[in-house]
Amino acid sequence: MQNAWLRNNGIISSRTSGIAADNPAKALLENSMHKTISNLQSQYGLHNPNVLKNQTALQNINRNTVLTRRGIYEDLVNNRGWEPENAKEFATKKAKELRERAIDFAKKNGLIKCH
């Protein structure tokens, strides 16, 4: 769950307040990978408060899953010398895992309604 979404929707006041402390978005701690993903978020409007305020939690998770997968892939290929096929497989697996954790977090905190 993107901390900027939580902040712009009035759920947290900072990265360390409230539910942010348990947010699985902190799972990617590697600086270069985080920068790549942050740049993609900016490029696709996910640093824009108006965009964030008009997304549901699930829309934000889904958009971030796509960007996270791409960011992991680009970092592995461009900065770590991975073969594209292996990087794609790893990035897809990791992004799916992070998406599941983000959805669980959002459900647990009432941000996604369970049916």
**Ends distance:** 20 Å
Count of helices?
Answer: 5
Round the mean pLDDT to the nearest integer and report it: 92
- Quote the beta fraction: under 5%
Q: Which class best fits the helix and strand makeup?
A: mainly alpha
- Radius of gyration in whole Å, from Cα? 14 Å
Strand count: 0
Order of helices and strands: HHHHH
Q: What characterizes the major β-sheet? A: none
Q: Helix amount, in percent?
A: 55-70%
* General shape: globular
Concise summary:
Helix content is 63%, strand content 0%. It is mainly α.
Descriptors:
single chain, 115 residues, mainly alpha, 0% strand
Which helices and strands occur, and which strands form pairs?
Layout: H1 3-8, H2 31-43, H3 49-53, H4 57-80, H5 84-108
Helix pairs in contact: 2-4, 4-5
Describe what this molecule looks like in 3D:
With 115 residues, the protein is an all-alpha fold. It is 63% helix and 0% strand. The protein is built from 5 helices and no strands. The protein has helices at residues 3-8, 31-43, 49-53, 57-80, 84-108. Helix 4 (57-80) runs antiparallel to helix 5 (84-108). The longest helix has 25 residues, at 84-108. It starts with a helix and ends in a 7-residue tail after the last helix. The model has no long low-confidence stretch (mean pLDDT 92).
